[in-house]
Amino acid sequence: MKETISIKMIFTIIKRHLVLIISTAVVGMMVAGAALVFLVTPMYEARTQILVTQSAQTEMNSNIQTSEVQANIQLVNTYTALLKSPRILDDVARNLDGNFTAGQLMSKITVASEHNSQVINVSVTDPNQAVAAEIANEIAASFAKITPNVMNVNNIEILAKATALENPKPVSPSSIIFIGGGAAGGMVIGFAIMIIRVIFNTRFKDESDVLDELGIPLLGNIAKIPGQKSL
């Protein structure tokens, strides 16, 4: 039996299965919410800021000062790489009494620089924000201790220390995205069930289906009697 499905028919099919699609979306949201509460560990973030410059010179004209600032900005990429190097992280791991390895610390750290500036932001994520703050501050301290010997700079300033809030908000996972993804997944399942139902529904829908299947002419229709249930 050959069938041609029009856009109007598609909307009719969706309308007929609207309750199913909404139900699966709601179930998907409930499953995602339960997973968010019982299975997914929330991650918290703590940040510190570091400023790195060359030692100030008292007798220097503005052009040389500007050139030095631009050179320092270009070295920021080197500083960010140094912050995540084993030289720094091994020292941090020792200062944290071996609770973390250098590899574990590296997975927790994100280093970025302010646009066209010598300020470096160090972000650390952990299930405990107090631990994240401790790690971030230890990284800044180790960087300030080791970098002068490595990079020949002697003016490193910690602009802002990481602190733990009383009621921190997790940075991941995002509850809106997580539950929205569950709803979208539930809708996909609902559409899949709808398509399977339509494909495997072999019942005749109207007289045209009978004519196409049997190849015989239509002699007449029997009107539906009002108030009677269809057989």
Automatic annotation (TrEMBL):
Membrane topology designation: Multi-pass membrane protein
GO molecular function: protein tyrosine kinase activity
Protein keywords: Cell membrane, Membrane, Transmembrane, Transmembrane helix
Residue ranges occupied by any Polysaccharide chain length determinant N-terminal domain in the UniProt entry: 3-96
Major localisation: membrane
Transmembrane segments: 18-40, 176-200
Protein localization: Cell membrane
GO-annotated cellular components: plasma membrane
Domain of life: Bacteria
Family according to the record: Belongs to the CpsC/CapA family.
The protein's name in its UniProt record: Capsular biosynthesis protein
Organism encoding this protein: Listeria booriae
